[in-house]
Amino acid sequence: MSVRKLKPVTPAQRFRVVNGFDPITSQKPEKSLLLPKKRTGGRNNTGKMTVPHRGGGHKKRYRIIDFKRNKFDLFAEVKSIEYDPNRSAFISLVEYEDGEKRYVIAQGGFKIGQKISSGENASPEIGNALPLAKIPLGTVISCIELNPRAGASLARSAGAFAQLMARDGNLATIKLPSGETRTISINCMASIGAVSNSDHQLIVSGKAGHARWLGRRPRTRPVAMNPVDHPMGGGEGRASGGHPRSKNGIPAKGFRTRSKNKASNKFIIERRKK
Q1: Residue 240 belongs to what H/E stretch?
Q2: Would you identify the CATH topology of the domain 228-267?
Q3: What confidence tens digit (pLDDT) does each residue in 61-116 have?
Q4: Which residue, of 86, 110, 266, 274, is most buried by count of CB atoms within 10 Å of its CB?
Q5: Sign of CA dihedral 44, 48, 54, 58
Q6: pLDDT over threshold 90, residue 199
C-alpha cells in the first residue's frame, strides 16, 4: 500500500496526498451484491434538517457486506479486492465452494486466490474468522462482534485492529483501537489480522471540493451564529461564545456524557485515554 503526493500544478494540488490504491484488483462491483442508497441531505421524514452540513456528493450504491461470517467450515476463495465508497476499508469479493459470492472486509495482506474460512475449526490465519475462545492470546484481530451472532461491530475501519489479551471463564479481554480495554463473550466471532488500507490516515484532501464529493457541506462556526441557532451565538461585537458546547447545550472538550448506571459499564476494565 502506498500514497502519492501530487505535483503542485494548481494551488489545490500543492498539499494533496492521494491513495495509490495498489491492492485494488477490480473496478466493477458484483451486481448481485449491490443495493440502491437513498440520500437524505440531513433531512428527516418531514423534510426538517436534523443533521447539518450534509448534502450533495457523488452518487453511491451500497455493497452488502458479510459481517456475520456464518458460512462455517466452507472455504472461500478471494476473487478480488475492491474500493467501497461507503467505508474507509477495502472490501474483498469471495466465492465459497458451493458457488455463493459474498463481500467481506479485506484484511491487510489479502492476496487473490487466497483461501479463507470461518468457524471453530478454522486455523488462526489472516482473513479467517473464529470465536474468541479459539483464537491464541496476543493475536491481532479485527471485525469483532459485541454480541454472539450479531455481526461484527468493532474495529472495522481502515487500518483498525484490536488485541486479544486474556480469557477468563466465558469472557475474553480485548484491547480496542481507542485504547479501551473491555471484556466480550468468548462466543463472539473475530477476524484474524488488521483491516486493510492502513494508509487512509495519511490522505490529505488538499481542497474543499474533496469534502463536497463526500457529501460534506461547509461548516458554520457556532460563534458566527445567532443565539436562536446555537448557545455560543450572538453577543455584541466579536464575542468568545463562552464555554464550548454543542447545539444541544452539552459541554464539549472532554465532558463525560456516559451514564454512570449503564448496564455495560461492568464489562469495561479501563476507559480509553483522552
Answers
A1: none
A2: Ribosomal protein L2; domain 3 (4.10.950)
A3: 999 999 999 999 999 999 999 999 999 999 999 999 999 999 999 999 999 999 99
A4: 110
A5: positive
A6: yes
Task: Calculate the dihedral angle through the C-alpha atoms of 141, 86, 212, 155, rounding to the nearest 10 degrees.
Answer: -20
Residue whose entry in the numeric block shows the C-alpha cell 488500507: 197
Whole-angstrom CA distances from 53 to 38, 218, 232 are 17, 6, 18
Any idea where the domains of the chain sit in the sequence? 3-41+55-201, 228-267
Place of cell 495498489: 22
The pLDDT-based confidence of 273 (bands split at 50, 70, 90) is confident
Q: Which of 222, 246, 226 is nearest to 236 (CA)?
A: 226
Domain 3-41+55-201: top CATH class? mainly beta
> Which carries the bigger pLDDT value, residue 2 or residue 151?
151
From CA 103, how far away is CA 118, in angstroms rounded?
14
Q: What is the pTM of this model?
A: 0.91
Rg of the chain over all Cα atoms, to the nearest angstrom: 22
Sheet of strand 76-82: strand arrangement: 101-105, 91-96, 76-82, 115-116
Residue 211 CA to residue 207 CA, distance in Å, equals 8
